[in-house]
Amino acid sequence: MKYTKDKEFVGKMFDEISPSYDRLNHFLSGYQDNRWRKKAIKILGELQPSYNKILDLASGSGDLGIEFMKLHPQILYSVDISREMLKINDTKLSNDKNITLRAEAEHLPFADGVIDLCGVAFGVRNFQDLEECIREIARVIKPGGIFLTIEMFKPFKDTITNRSFKVYFEKVLPKLGNKLSNSKYAYDYLFESVDNFITVDSYNTLLMQNNFKFIKVKNNFLGIVHSVFAEKL
Ligand SMILES: C[S@@+](CC[C@H](N)C(=O)[O-])C[C@H]1O[C@@H](n2cnc3c(N)ncnc32)[C@H](O)[C@@H]1O
Q1: CA distance 23 to 76
Q2: Which residue ranges form the domains of the chain, and what is each CATH number?
Q3: What's the DSSP call for residue 169?
């Protein structure tokens, strides 16, 4: 597989793996992914008393959206480029507060400064033009609003644990994931997308350069999976 973040390719890939996405996400993360989302929601609840308009960007099948509902928003927008992921989102979050929209993170269908909280879980790594998306996210969040990112960043420490994890992640997980999802390449893409991504420090710098103020970073797993909290200036 030749690694690319072309939007059309990425959207089709997620369409293709959508039926097995949730099951494999939980299994391959050792059933930790929902724990990371829940911890982030707890921190968001401590940061501000309420969030009226929440945007779950690159929402996929809606696991972050389910957690966002616990913050009692007036409205939740679930936005993604994959039609098939959004169909699953619709069935999992079938209430009138959730609005699913097919749109690109590069061109969000919202006016300036209308969103109180935007969250992207395991999405920013897939964005074709990360900086353009960050600028667009900054545009739609209101001043004082919060931007949460949960992501697998490129590890900056070369420890024995990280090297062992890399063997699993590069050699074992793609074979297992491709087989279980009936995809020829989706889990090779997963490894490549993390290997070619930036560190959490570089990501924070990018946020600071684009109108965000640092709040905190939580290391969820091995200095790879982090939750990043930032405030729109
Ligand atoms: C790994 S899934 C994460 C889904 C979900 N947030 C979760 O926590 O499980 C990444 C999602 O990002 C979406 N995506 C990738 N590039 C996108 C873009 N440019 N704009 C909007 N969504 C995008 C994909 O379609 C896919 O559903």
Answers
A1: 24
A2: 7-232 (3.40.50.150)
A3: I
- Count CB-CB contacts under 10 A for residue 163: 10
CB 69 within 8 A of CB 97: yes
Q: What mean pLDDT is predicted for residues 19-47?
A: 96
Query: How many whole angstroms from 126 Cα to the centroid of ligand 1?
Result: 7
Token digits for 35? 């724990």
Nearest to residue 59, comparing CAs of 20, 23, 22?
Answer: 22
**Measured in angstroms, how far is the CA atom of residue 167 from the centroid of ligand 1?**
25
Q: Which two tokens stand for residue 190?
A: 């997963």
Nearest residue (by CA) to ligand 1, atom 4, is: 60
Q: What phi and psi, each to the nearest 5 degrees, are found at residue 209?
A: -75, -10
Query: What pTM, to 2 d.p., does this model score?
Result: 0.96
Give residue 7's pLDDT: 94
231 strand-pairing partners = 146, 213
